[in-house]
Write a structure and sequence with these properties.
Its main location: cytoplasm. By secondary structure, this protein is α+β, with helices and mostly antiparallel strands. The protein has 12 helices and 31 strands.
Length: 529
């Protein structure tokens, strides 16, 4: 590929995060519309019309009207190659979202203008902030009555501890919405221009609307001019360095449903969002530039049955350096195994195209026969390249699971293995009886697991709750199986490492008092983020 650095610099790879129902999937659709990737935007809840959101490709998502898996969507726009990772908003699928956030260079946070900062938004924001990547905020649903814009920005700053800089300002709201005063683009965007009227109106050097437009006579326009004047004089100053460091968030107002403010947002986002940069590898011993000629990347997601007719399995790889080309040989860092990458794909949700070449910043899907695991690093060349481990949450809810039909054990075991490998749930086995036990962060994960086992693997399952438990790992050399009791169930994880599932904190303290020399280790806990 000609001029690798030039191609890498064109890439913009970001995730969209929000609380459920803030409009995350809808804005994703509108961005695809702007990029010419689709001709008509679906809405998540358009069930009767059959006009479903492009990024919600899984059948259960269409039925429920929610996103339960991360989607990858790619398009070209204004000289940039855009990779959008649409993530599940539902908190039960936080783990999938957290891993996805490790694979992006920026994040777009969508906020409902009536509800402000909601719990899941706050939780996901913390993960993004920890990574120190740029965060762009889109305050959505301006076409409905919501809270005062200044209140929303104040809440943003106080709850999330980040500076907010408004790139535009609403002229009205709800039924009284007239437009947006765009500070960044230096124009006014009308909400519903009359026939033959320009949607974008120029501002003069004083920031006033040019000419004798009737909007200038309205009190809402005068109020907006006062608000904008105050913001520019007394508010935060736009600081691109702070934006890139994740210390200041550019704030955009708009309505994704009516495609209002989305085009200006996309233009400015692509202007200020970073291209792929260098990364630390091998436990911080080495740094590799995105434009380095050595190919490397990591698997952040595995998805089975994106095409049920072919029963395929795709490993999603974020390319971190160099150039991918079809037929190249790579090394799997975990095992040292050499693999030839003959089949790779680019995405438009469930629509896919064979890819010949891709560069750092892109997401490619590798057809996988079981070689890859989530978190795997792959690289070309002789020098080993290994990226930091991805978070794996410690489950809190557990179910015993068996096959409803004993004659379908083969499909039961296949489905169980594949869904566990892709991170849909976590799998444990009773240390004594070898019975299967599933662990999840939220109840909806079990429902999706059961649905997919039935519909993708033709295997109905019976799940028996064993309640909320606290998981703690124990070193094999310290383990005595007789330590197990009804209050601390002894199991092994999918890597055959022993752990106890404690009934509650009291049971864990009792165990600690009885076996003071035994070290118990907690896994990665979502609540600690």
């Amino acid at each position: 590929m000609d001029n690798l650095k030039q191609q890498v610099d064109r890439r913009r790879t970001f995730a969209i995060i929000s609380h459920p129902d803030a409009g995350k999937t809808t804005i994703t659709e509108q961005l695809l519309l702007q990029g010419g990737a689709i001709r008509k935007a679906g809405t998540v809840k358009a069930k009767k019309s059959g006009n479903f959101a492009t990024s919600d490709w899984m059948e259960i998502e269409k039925q429920r009207g929610i996103s339960v898996t991360s989607s990858v969507l790619q398009f070209d726009y204004d000289g940039k190659h855009v990779n959008i990772l649409d993530t599940p908003g539902h908190e039960d699928f936080s783990e999938d979202t957290y891993r996805t956030l490790m694979a992006v260079d920026a994040a777009v946070m969508v906020i409902d203008s009536a509800k402000g900062i909601e719990p899941q938004t706050k939780k996901l924001f913390k993960v993004v902030k920890q990574r120190g990547i740029p965060i762009f905020t889109f305050i959505n649903k301006l076409d409905r009555d919501g809270r005062e814009p200044l209140d929303l920005i104040t809440e943003l700053e106080e709850l999330l501890n980040i500076e907010g800089y408004p790139m535009n300002w609403p002229i009205g709201m709800g039924k009284g919405l007239r437009g947006l005063y765009d500070i960044g683009e230096h124009h006014i965007e009308l909400y519903r221009p009359e026939e033959g009227q320009d949607r974008f109106l120029k501002l003069d050097s004083d920031g006033e609307l040019e000419g004798n437009h009737p909007l200038k006579e309205e009190s809402i326009y005068q109020q907006t001019m006062e608000d904008v004047s105050l913001l520019l004089e007394a508010g935060n100053q736009f600081d691109e360095e702070k934006v890139l460091a994740g210390q200041q968030t550019p704030v955009f107002f708009g309505s994704a449903l009516t495609n209002f403010g989305v085009e200006s947002f996309l233009n400015q986002f692509l202007q200020y969002a970073p291209a792929p940069e260098s990364s630390e590898v091998n436990d911080g011993e080495k740094t590799i530039a995105a434009s380095d000629e050595t190919f490397s990347g990591f698997v952040f997601k595995i998805q089975a049955n994106m095409n049920p007719a072919h029963r395929d399995r795709i490993a999603f790889v974020r390319i971190k350096s160099g150039e991918f080309h079809k037929g190249m040989d790579i090394t799997l860092a975990r095992t040292g195994q050499k693999i030839r990458l003959n089949n790779a794909t680019e995405f438009m949700s469930s629509e896919r195209e064979q890819v010949e070449t891709s560069v750092a910043g892109d997401i490619v899907g590798l057809y996988d026969t079981g070689n890859f695991q989530i978190g795997d690093s792959i690289y070309s060349g002789k020098a080993k390249i290994e990226y930091p481990k991805l978070p794996e949450f410690t489950p809190e809810l557990f179910m015993q699971v068996t096959s409803k039909n004993v004659m379908k054990q083969k499909s039961f075991h296949k489905g169980m293995k594949q869904l566990v490998q892709e991170g849909a749930v976590q799998l444990y086995r009773n240390y004594q009886t070898n019975e299967y036990i599933l662990g999840a962060v939220g109840q909806l994960q079990f429902e999706v697991f059961s649905y997919r086992m039935k519909n993708e693997y033709n295997s109905e399952v019976v799940m028996t709750p064993i309640g909320s438990r606290t998981a703690r790992w124990i070193k094999p050399e310290q383990l005595d199986p007789s330590m197990s009791s009804s209050r601390n169930l002894l199991v092994k994880d999918r890597f055959d490492q022993p752990l106890f599932l404690f009934e509650n904190d009291f049971a864990m303290r009792w165990f600690h008092d009885k076996y003071p020399d035994v070290e118990l280790e907690a896994g990665f806990n979502e609540k600690e983020v």
